[in-house]
Design goal:
Elements: H1 9-41, H2 49-84, E1 97-104, E2 107-112, E3 117-120, E4 122-126, E5 131-137, E6 142-145, E7 153-155, E8 161-165, E9 171-177, E10 189-195, H3 197-210
Parallel strand pairs: 1-5, 4-10
Antiparallel strand pairs: 1-2, 2-3, 5-8, 6-7, 6-9, 9-10
Helix pairs in contact: 1-2
Bound molecules: copper (II) ion (CU).
Length: 211
């Protein structure tokens, strides 16, 4: 359950952002520590008060204004570009599969509206295709999270939030509630099974037959 082992486009974007911020701010930290050590060890030399003031102002403007403005702007631009990939935009071809997920204290109700299939604590999706999850809560605030597939999305009573998921490869992905929702919260887990598209259709037909 690590966001740093992404298995879908939305999670991939989060992971890139994480590594990008980690690398960039590591460089900033190293540069600052280096400057600090340099400042502690160097010989102050002989400078006039005016010259000292001028140098000090240069560091305040450079380190206190320019550096944060540049850093935050870089993160903002990269963040907006990557955030685009997480939006629920219309697809170029066709409609995504829709699944309704209702959170309860403390379990997950999963419905496939076109077929009437209902599951508990498990989702089945076709791999390599975007799936839109319509998330709602039956009681308190919960949060839907499958770290390897996408970011978190809060679930509220009386309001539907849509989260787009996609798994690149077939496999089992673990998920959990990530908003404290009462004494059963820690055990509010679920799994997402991603199948090859043909196997998914077969599975759905079988489930329909069982009902
Ligand atoms: Cu919870």
């Amino acid at each position: 359950m690590s966001t740093l082992q992404p298995a879908g486009p939305s999670a991939q974007a989060s992971a890139w952002l994480w590594w990008g911020m980690f690398a960039f701010f590591s460089l900033v930290l190293i540069a600052l520590v280096w400057l600090w050590i340099h400042a502690m060890r160097r010989d102050p030399g002989q400078v006039s008060d005016r010259e000292a003031q001028r140098l000090q102002n240069r560091w305040v403007v450079g380190g206190g204004l320019l550096l944060p403005i540049v850093s935050i702007s870089v993160v903002l631009v990269v963040g907006i570009a990557l955030g685009q990939r997480m939006l629920v935009l219309p697809l170029e071809d066709g409609e995504p599969l829709r699944i309704e997920v209702t959170a309860h204290q403390w379990w997950w109700e999963v419905r496939y509206p076109d077929t009437g299939v209902v599951l508990k604590d498990e989702l089945h999706i076709p791999a390599g295709q975007p799936v839109d999850l319509q998330l709602i809560s039956d009681d308190v605030v919960h949060s839907f999270w499958v770290p390897r597939l996408a970011g978190k999305m809060d679930m509220f009573p009386g309001r539907t939030n849509v989260l787009r998921l996609e798994a690149d490869e077939p496999g089992t992905y673990h998920g959990m509630c990530s908003e404290f929702c009462g004494v059963g919260h820690a055990r509010m887990h679920f799994v997402v099974e991603a199948h090859l598209p043909a196997d998914f259709e077969l599975w759905l037909q079988q489930e329909q037959g069982n009902d």
